[in-house]
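Holo model, zinc ion. Inputs:
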Amino acid sequence: MEVKYCSSCGSEMETRDVDGTARRACTACSFVHWGNYSIGVGALVVKEDKVLLVRRAQEPGKGYWTNPGGYIEQLEPIEETIRREVLEESGIEATVRSVVALRDQPRNIHNLYVAFSMEYVGGQPTPDGVEVDAAGFYSLQEMETMNVAPFTKWLVDVALRGKSEGLIVDENPVVPLTGYGLFRV
Ligand SMILES: [Zn+2]
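Output:
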């Protein structure tokens, strides 16, 4: 569907050549509609070779076991979002260690999913009773008889058999960079 009005100032949009590509752009301000995107974040919390999973109580994916996660917020750092989602959905406190996987899904709303390796800090798995109705740490063997979502199986493999630590949080960048969340090799 074509974007009719500017989401920044409310004026009419037009189709215009922007650096060689026809894009919807505002007739009154500098706003350009680049596309529709969404970004999901997911947590891989491992404890004694078991991975934290939750069972979805709502669509999409109702009844499937997945790793905890959600969508990012406009002004919240993604590290904070994933920490909060894990705590809300499963009652587990965990902190971000690194980025270990990405999933790119080009479609109507182009989705990017960022998977974090997280350090278990504390808490007992407790489902929130709304988004998820069960939570726990499970071994690969236990997962064999569970309804684990296919993408989650891929992530569990990354969590348990990953060959690298991934992109590590850089808390002391060589130059001062404020307002960024930085992850690096
Ligand atoms: Zn505008």
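The longest helix spans residues 78-90. Residues 6, 8-9, 11, 26, 28-29, 31 surround zinc ion (CB under 6 Å).
Archived with the compound record.
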